[in-house]
Amino acid sequence: MKWLLAGASGFLGTALRVRLAGLGHEVVRLVRREPATATEYRWDPDAFEIDRAALEGVDAVMNLCGVGVADWLWTPSRRQLLRSSRVNPTGTLAAALADRAAAGDAPVLIQASGIAVYGTQRSALPHTEDSPAATDFLARLVVDWEQATDPAAEAGVRVVIMRTAPVLDRSGGAFRLMKVCWSVGGGAVLGDGQQRMPMISLDDYLRFVLWASETPGASGPYNMTIPEPTTNAEFSDVLAEQLHRPRLLRAPAGLLRLPLGELAEQLVGDMNVVPRRSLEQGFSYAAPDVRATVGAALHGR
Q1: What is the CA radius of gyration of the chain?
Q2: Rounded distance, CA 66 to CA 145, Å?
Q3: Regarding predicted confidence, which is higher, 39 or 71?
């Protein structure tokens, strides 16, 4: 298969490029600078401009664009960047794919999204893909992000939306910092520790991308998290055990809210989410629970 990647330079994009290349797939990518190789094509998503030659012969498009949610405090300018860095690239790709569909030749669009769409209020029943969206800032952002794919879907493009939990792996992302903190004895339970904490292993994430590209019936939203929900306290115990470190510290929710504001809810709020649709459609998780996921993150598959 031939893949076009947008947002290919980050943690997930790099891992996906390596996995695809290792499996013999052809990979081209979109860049904002002048292309340096024949496998790069220029675009300017803030101006909604893209080199349409990038889509020639492509079987699958993976859109991973978006600045990190937890990389900076949510100032007004940061909130605007969180939105524009997601909605603008998605809208640009959706419009280009809609045009391609009109010509009878459109690849599948695999679109990054987030489980933050369900909010952080504690719930007795887990959220599935049919659950309604919450109304906080990040949930509204995810709704707008996903709706930016509408022009492609309405034109007949198969669109797969990955509502992804934090992806755990020692090679990058938030887990790399967690591992360092816990290794030196600085790990802590967040809040009361009873909040459900979604996660997924990098291997399961990458395998789902490939499954989605190869499964004609796959479309719409999919929750990307372990099938067996866990709490922050359970995660902390497992990580401490596998790193052979004690779990002694606790970070009260109020203490986290003081410097982080609304962002703190992504750490201490409850996210009770399950991947119902992927399981129903036959996707199998290699790391279905917290112990397997932490083990995969620390030691590989």
Answers
A1: 19
A2: 10
A3: 39
| Predicted TM-score (pTM) above 0.90 | yes
Q: What is the DSSP code string of 187-229?
A: -EEETTS-SB---EEHHHHHHHHHHHHH-TT--EEEEES-SS-
Within 10 A of 73 (CB to CB), how many other CB atoms are there?
12
Look up tokens 């982080």; give the residue: 260
What is the token pair recorded at 204?
């399961």
Q: What is the pLDDT of residues 216-260, one digit of tens each?
A: 999 999 999 999 999 999 999 999 999 988 877 888 888 888 888
pLDDT band at 301 (very low <50, low <70, confident <90, very high): low
Other residues' Cβ atoms within 10 Å of the Cβ of residue 101: 19
Q: Nearest-CA neighbor of 231 among 264, 195, 265? A: 195
Residue 123 is which amino acid?
Answer: S
Q: Which residues make Cβ contacts (< 8 Å) with residue 288, sequence separation at least 6? A: 226, 227, 228
Within 23-164, residue ranges assigned H as helices are 76-102, 137-147, 150-154
Look at residue 197 in the predicted model and tell me its pLDDT.
96
Which three-class secondary structure state does DSSP give residue 114? strand
Domains of the chain and any CATH numbers = 2-169+199-227+272-286 (3.40.50.720)
